[in-house]
Amino acid sequence: MNTLSYGLLALLSVGPRTGYDLSQRVKPLWQAGHSQIYPLLSQLEQSGYITFELIEQSDKPDKKEYTITESGLAELSEWVGDSAGKPVLKDDLHIKLYAIWLAEPEKARQLLQARAAFCLSELERYQLLMDNVEKDRSSDGGKKHFGRYLLIRKRVMDVEANLQFCKWALSELGS
Length: 175
Prior knowledge:
- By secondary structure, this protein is mainly alpha-helical.
- The chain folds into two domains: about 5-80, Arc Repressor Mutant, subunit A, CATH 1.10.10; about 90-175.
- It is built from seven helices and three strands.
- Strand 2 (about 50-55) and strand 3 form a beta hairpin.
- The chain starts with a helix and ends with a helix.
């Protein structure tokens, strides 16, 4: 199984979800579209890791609500205990920074200012997510939502570090 499959199992370990809900909730975790998620859900179901219930809707097409099975929980639990691979570094800003000496100073500043603005908007978004996860943690004693809490905190720290870098780089450029 690939990492996205485990990501879907992780999301389902907290509770049942529709395919659409899974595709929305996977966004902060992994870059994936519907075309990747739905075939994986089918594979996970065929492997016995998840089941689904067809929910009839009168005003919309029927939807499937997926639930993780005991077998899926066991598979996920085993995978979580394995060591993580190397982090994937894939950000076009890194290449642009390497070649930034070719840019006009104003263009270089704009590049960094745009990334800083993005970081600020991400921090706002993560604050809303943090508010929600704190409510969820208080409702269930925190256990099921602890991983989500850790993930959001990690993302906040990553974004804060990126923002600090942008501020530092802008000062180096003399803006």
